[in-house]
Specification:
The protein has about 100 residues and is mostly helical. The protein is built from two helices and two strands, in the order E-E-H-H. About 75% of the residues lie in helices and about 5% in strands.
Length: about 100
């Protein structure tokens, strides 16, 4: 972390910046989580195919399971959106930090 003093001339306030290395570590962790969520969505697609294939004759048996899969997929997509927002915020933080330290 480093401190950047304020500048009345440029209208900047004093700020504390995290190191670019720390921000990159956080970006890497978010990317790993996004990959994990993406794999979870792929598994749900496989399960959906299996349910459709083996229970096509008795929908009353597989519709509840399919509904649960859809609900889980929607929750997973929401999680993916939040991760993406976090990744965007970290990218902006990294750009701000690079500008502040003159990279």
């Amino acid at each position: 972390m480093f401190f950047r003093n304020y500048s009345t001339y440029e209208g900047e306030r004093a700020r504390i910046y995290r190191s670019p290395e720390k921000i990159r570590e956080d970006i890497f962790e978010i990317r790993k989580k996004i990959e994990s969520v993406d794999r979870m969505l792929n598994i749900r697609n496989i399960l959906t195919d299996v349910i459709d294939k083996y229970a096509s004759g008795e929908p009353e048996k597989w519709i509840p399971a399919l509904s649960d899969i859809v609900a889980d997929a929607e929750e997973t997509l929401d999680r993916l959106k939040r991760l993406r927002e976090n990744l965007d915020a970290l990218s902006e933080e990294l750009e701000d930090t690079k500008w502040a330290i003159g990279m």
